[in-house]
């Protein structure tokens, strides 16, 4: 396209001139659940409940919830409730269940938050002319979703969209990890690693206590069933603790170096001004360090969520 002396290149590699924060109200958010019209005075991302319709991702996300709820069942009904100490049950129960709720809330926020999708099909002649670029300037177009790629955006073949600051696509949260939901993914990995470590500690204490006493007095379940439930919980906790701890460390390292996993693997030279260490953390979690960084409910507007749910019942549109 040679309109107004500007060149539009169909390339997957990019060093575009658009800023990452540019919002374009053209087209709808595909691969998500559309609620209302994106032209109703709000940007498309504010009018959409994001959800990726990927069978593998939905199975993995369901498995994640099942495994967390299984851990809740074993910890509460096999180890804590039969314990003789009231304060031991109360303190460990409150801690474990609170962390589990925060982990599942972080998982939902990661899965249902638009990761930073670029509007689909905005690479039109009219939009190109509206950019008012200087003669000779070059912007880049994604040939797969026909959108103008902002800086640091990459195309996800599963989401079928270009995602700003895309780090990777995670099937366990059935979504890409990008500019707008990386915070919740970091919280998800942190809370899963914490409840995994807590479950391992409780399992060790339970084994030690039951070996000293009679197994029948340790649980309302039979000794054989209790041992099988605890062994499976320990295996699950070790796997989850290892995986999420590595992912948490990787994400923090990427944020502090202002470099996504894709950029690191592709060895892309930064063309942007890097936000290092605390500046990078502030840009992802928002504002100065505080306990709000650890709250996955921050920014969640219950009233708007209820309106979206009501609108969805009135008539929703699935777009892929």
UniProtKB/TrEMBL annotation:
User: Per UniProt, what is one Pfam family of this protein?
Assistant: DHHC
Membrane topology term reads: Multi-pass membrane protein
Catalytic reaction(s) noted = L-cysteinyl-[protein] + hexadecanoyl-CoA = S-hexadecanoyl-L-cysteinyl-[protein] + CoA
One Gene Ontology cellular component annotation held by this UniProt entry: membrane
Q: Where are the transmembrane segments?
A: 56-80, 86-105, 184-207, 227-248
> Which UniProt keywords are present, listed alphabetically?
Acyltransferase, Membrane, Transferase, Transmembrane, Transmembrane helix
Query: Which is one GO molecular function term here?
Result: protein-cysteine S-palmitoyltransferase activity
* Leading EC class: transferase
Cross-referenced InterPro entries: Palmitoyltrfase_DHHC, PFA4/ZDH16/20/ERF2-like
- Positions of the Palmitoyltransferase DHHC domain: 141-267
Q: Which domain of life is it from?
A: Eukaryota
What does the record give as EC number?
2.3.1.225
Coiled-coil region(s)? none
Q: Where in the cell is it found?
A: Membrane
Primary localization: membrane
UniProt note: domains: The DHHC domain is required for palmitoyltransferase activity.
The family note in this entry says:
Belongs to the DHHC palmitoyltransferase family.
* Protein name per Swiss-Prot or TrEMBL: Palmitoyltransferase
- Species source reads Salarias fasciatus (Jewelled blenny)
